[in-house]
Task: structure prediction
Amino acid sequence: MMEKRNWFDQGGQSYAQYRPEYPEALAAFLAAAAPATRLAVDVGCGNGQLTTLLARHFAQVAGIDPSADQIAHARAASGVAYAVAPAEKLPFADGVASAITAAQAAHWFDLPAFYAEVRRVAHQGAVVALVSYGVLALEGALGERFLRFYAEDIGPFWPPERRLVDAGYAGMDFPFAERPAPAFAIEQAWDLGQFLGYVATWSAVKNARQAGKEALLAAFADECAALWGDAAERKRVTWPLHMRLGWV
Result:
């Protein structure tokens, strides 16, 4: 029998540990779309998942996040420098960036102020990409139970900005020369602990815990454990990637 535990009681490194990985092809595409590969700026970088991928294709990459805790847990990589700063006040000189990205972060920004900073730090023709990933998909009864949890059980605890993510940023103002983005997806093989660890990083779960809904979360974890079977078994988990893609 699986040891009873509180899957939703995670420490400060949980975001870095459990967030899904972006595909290598995404970083390669962004480098090919940029007019040069001298400097990429990843805004709202979190623990550096996209940042470190970009470092395989750009000479220098800067990861910027307003959270000192996120930066403290960010991944080290050659050519990557991190800084604590808001999206609305980027710590760069004018016209230095070949690419500016924001992955699963732009819905938190003051967009007019951020876009003004994009125009300031980008050199002519720089690529701008707002990346988001949708709701994860699991097969069978697990997937059905997860979707009920996402939409119904935990739905009231999502911040309003989550609607922008669910829509793939489609309704978000994007004042750049825009082109359609190719289709990408995230695919992982996760065990039960990784799946529930990821769910625990959600702002909605944190809001539910603060509202005293531990029993709701525990019930979901117990049902998932029963449906999962062997907790160590890895199951296929996928997310569709969405991107607003433009040039300055």
About this structure: The chain has ten helices and eight strands. The first helix runs from residue 14 to 18. The two ends are 56 Å apart (CA to CA). The longest strand covers residues 235-247.
